[in-house]
Amino acid sequence: MFAQTSWYKPIPEDWFIVVTDVINSTEAIKKGQYKQVNSIGVASIVALINAIKPLKIPYVFGGDGATACLPKSQLDIAKPALAAARLMAQEQFGLNLRIGLVSVAEIREHGFDVLVAKHQPHEFYQQAMFAGNGLNFAEKLIKEDTPTNPYILADYFPANDDIFDGFECRWNEIPSTKEETIALLIQGVAADDHSLNQIYQQILDKVSEIYGTESEYHPLKLDNLSLSSSFKTLNCEAGIRTAFKGLAKRLKYLLKLQVLRLVGIWLMAKKIKTQHTDWGKYKQQLLDNTDYQKFDDTLRMVIAGSKSQQVKLRQALDVFQQQDLIAYGIHSSSAALITCMVKDYNTDHVHFLDAANGGYAMAALELKRQLKNREK
């Protein structure tokens, strides 16, 4: 089980935790910029991965940002890439991306830890899982609103926009196969690891009891995946991939995306198999390589279900919450949202999932309210 700490290994002492998040993401989402918020969070991962390749690091997408673990030796390489993501967010979408770094050594000095495990749900897809509450502590330090916060990445000369190679955002929102798609956040607050593991297992059992098997509540289905022809939708990818190249290059890229859409539809419909890619299997691999459930000191899930199932889920979670065992947040939407990192179209592609209209970022508001009430 993902919360079983015996499966985790400590991150080395000389590593750093990188946290990115869109400042005032709630207000941006209320203005309809939830797709841009998601895209910026994924773009920060893509930039970091590109900067330090072929080195592989553990990371997790959180909706309005991301978290990753980075060796100290890679800081000077990573900082220009992260600065590029911050500049891109401001120039292309008018949004501010906060970027912070905290050493693992300092996290441990405060009594927290950063533990990581590798989860492989499918043959070509690996996920990092985190425990130890160190990520939550790092995020708290980075989000302290002080003018001289020492954890915030200072001004840095940014890398060029090739740093975003592999970022893709070409799919239409995926309408729920049921009545709704929810983003679910659950954070255990029990005192010891054994109790937390039992609580999370009981919660997952409840999810299965209410929603059925994973295949039943998976928010994506093969027949409701479609490539977008909307310039508004495609503008997120175009803005990021041509961030510093000017309007002409951006328009050219948008036209290129329209051509690629038609080619992609034909390749997948005809199940064309090339030397490098079996296009008949691509949509299934997309489903397999999707992070619709994960753990980073907080259980994160995107679930398709009915409104009555959500009522039953809330009733079950309220029992745990009233016993001061968890805090949780739920955001309901009519669709899911995919943002992608593609290294190749055969097997090496990852698809970051959120509920539309704010997803995890909006669910976090309810989670934070419960945590504040608990502190009171």
Molecular structure report:
There is one protein chain. The protein contains twelve helices and 15 strands. With 376 residues, the chain is of the alpha+beta class. The chain has one domain. The longest helix is centred in the C-terminal third of the chain and has 23 residues. InterPro entries: DUF3095 (IPR021445). This is Adenylate cyclase. It holds the Pfam family DUF3095.
Task: Summarize, please.
This protein is of the alpha+beta class and about 375 residues long. It has helices at about 25-30, 35-50, 75-95, 105-110, 135-140, 195-210, 215, 230-240, 245-270, 280-290, 305-320, 360-375; strands at about 10, 15-20, 60, 65-70, 95-105, 115-120, 125-130, 165-170, 175, 180-190, 295, 300-305, 325-335, 335-340, 350-355.
User: Helical percent range?
Assistant: 40-55%
**Rg value:** 20 Å
H/E element order: EEHHEEHEHEEHEEEHHHHHEEHEEEH
Number of distinct beta strands: 15
End-to-end separation: 32 Å
Structural class: alpha+beta
Strand content: 15-25%
Tally of helical segments: 12
Mean pLDDT: 92
Major β-sheet, in short? Answer: 4 strands, antiparallel
The figure for the number of domains is 1
Unreliable residue stretches: none
* Strand ordering within the main sheet: 3-4-2-5
Shape: globular
